[in-house]
Design goal:
The complex is a heterodimer of chains A (about 500) and B (about 90). Chain A has about 500 residues and is an alpha/beta fold. Chain A contains 16 helices and 11 strands. In chain B, about 20% of the residues are buried. Classes of the chains: A alpha/beta (about 500), B mainly alpha (about 90). At the A-B interface, helix 10, helix 11, helix 12, helix 13 and helix 14 of A face helix 1 and helix 2 of B.
Chain lengths: ~500, ~90
Amino acid sequence: MELYELTAHELSDMLKKGEISSVELTRSVLDRIHNIEEDIGCYITICREEALKRAQEVQERINTGTVKSPLAGIPVALKDNICTKGIRTTCASKMLHNFVPCYSATAAKKLYEADTVLLGKTNMDEFSMGSSTENSFFKITKNPWNRQCVPGGSSGGSAAAVASGEAIFALGTDTGGSVRQPASFCGVVGLKPTYGAVSRFGLVAFASSLDQIGPITKDVTDCALVLNAITGYDSKDSTSSDIKHPDYTESLVKGIKGIRVGIPHEYIGEGVSNEVRKAVLNAVDVLNDLGAVCEEFSLKMTEYVVPAYYIISSAEASSNLARYDGVKFGYRAQEYEGLTDMYMKTRSEGFGTEVKRRIMLGTYVLCSGHYDEFYKKALKVRTLICMEFDRAFSKYDVILGPAAPTTAFKFGEKRSNPLEMYLGDVFTVSANITGLPALVIPCGFDSSGLPIGLQLIGKAFNESTLLKVGYNFEQNTGFHKIRPSVNKAN
Amino acid sequence: MKISKESVKYIAQLARIDLTEEETDKMSKDMEVVLSYMDKLSELDTCDVKPAEHIIQVNNVLRDDKTIVSSCKDELLSNAPSKEKGYFKVPSTF
């Protein structure tokens, strides 16, 4: 077993006992990156020298016993829309290809304070707009399980890195499923925390009422450790919640007897592939055997969540992305006549096709004449969706279903048809619309060997229940231990 | 739902995006498909429903008006595509 294959908690124990050093571990992951990165393509920026230097410095503190965090010395990758001081942060866009932030995002800072070792910045769909990581300005990322397939998106680089051993864990961001769907496609664990649980300060904004940063890890235990490190109130994000977070590792205990699990008919019905449905229903059997009380119910608003999501997210994106004007940072067109022309040419040359499409849709639904019909309507539907989830959570502790209707699809399969790509988000966007936490864990494989993800949605700020159910499932199945075999391309 | 090329050009102007003729054609087709699908929401009666504002309960956040050290000017200007004498430089606006 190579060090890069292990989980953060296993490595943490070895570091504590002095069996390995952070330098050895970091070198193991960097060697892994060296060997397979050309083939998989997880990173936009790799911080090789900085990582080794940092590992050395952390190791010295481990030796003197002055580190506290269980993540001390563990190598991590961050999605490239999370600002890192002095390290290029591109959002996988030509618009920010040369942007070097002069501050770090709170989540990045918290991981730094937890003595982790930053490996680099991972590939993504440009400005997180996409579900396949095909919309990156720089490169595509391949699915470690099958290199003809996408890793999912938009946090495809982070998920592929964790699955292939190019990082021990990673942070992604989730606006409509961008942590959970790639976690599902790559066979790893992904969590979108409750809106407000993790500070968004320093996260490049896409849709501010929906965005959350979340962990992508190899198992549920690591997920709890990372969640402990990144949650908490931040005065720099006025929407971050000033609540006391529990120690999430306390959820990692056996016993889910009596936990009420609701399975929406709509999440296992038409449009879901047979193999995904079967794996999800097998997971229900496992939970039933463990004493959970599972029953089906109806979430009738499901057919309206995707249109509501794309109206709200595009509207917020069109507003947030107005800041890219070629004045304060990023790309500026070379040739232009006057100020307005500079804006127009900068934005036309700097943004990719999907980003322009979302800005156009967002501008359309917000402009006078369409505002009431689209934007205001979507906000009202958002209220209805929240109410339906409130009712469901008066009966259940957890809502269970698949993370995505299918397993990973092939490159190019959905790229030419934006609507088809959007429809794949049907099971993930509800958690963003309602702000609720949602955990994705591996629950099986399809006949071609691609992983299937199980999604558990919980009550606001009740990540603990999700982790508990996820942990119990994991301990009784073992899908999380199966890793893709990725060898150096010959 | 029909989205004319003129309508696409108007929206592009509002969004400060320059589209070629070919891009305008494709954009009008894509927007037509997506907006028609978004129009599905019109099936729902929302007369008596309030638009969602904050999905998670938030309270007004106030703090003392204190001077603190923020990023320094040189650092902030270091990302500017064009600058002069400590200012962002843009084409003349009049």
